[in-house]
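Notebook, bench 3.
Goal today: get a predicted structure for unspecific monooxygenase from Falcunculus frontatus so we can plan the truncation constructs. The sequence was checked against the plasmid map this morning, with no discrepancies at the termini. Length recorded as 146 residues. Pasting the sequence as submitted so the record is complete.
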Amino acid sequence: NIICSIVFGDRFDYEDRKFLDLINWIEENNRLQTSIQTQLYNFFPNVMEYLPGPHQQLIKNFQKVDEFTTDIIKEHQKTLDPTCPRDFIDAFLNKMEQEKGNDHSEFTVETLSRTTLDLFLAGTGTTSITLRFAILILHKYPEIVG
């Protein structure tokens, strides 16, 4: 939720259905990434796109996560106050406005969507995995707890 407040400018209630769905899609994708079909999809996307397997669910989940971030970006665009950025998205939207005349600018809505998703995934994934391993180590070596 700390990452959410930095990136999205808002914290989600821990019972929020949309937030729980987002977490579930990300966790499911973390599990699906270890399948052989997903590994093959990374090397042969054009072929694997037509074959069944867990990589198809990974693609669907990624599209749902992308829709989630895109919806938040659209809402930010509607309520943007350039003089008072609330979060990363607002700061990026302000920079997009500054770069409007530059045809070679990398400040686009697509880049914003991908960067927002990268920040969110890096912040949540890294933290949760670190905590899981810390708890496992403490469980294995209880003498270091005391």
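The CA atoms of residues 11 and 124 lie 13 Å apart. Helices lie at 2-7, 17-32, 36-43, 45-48, 54-79, 88-98, 109-140.
Flagging this for group meeting.
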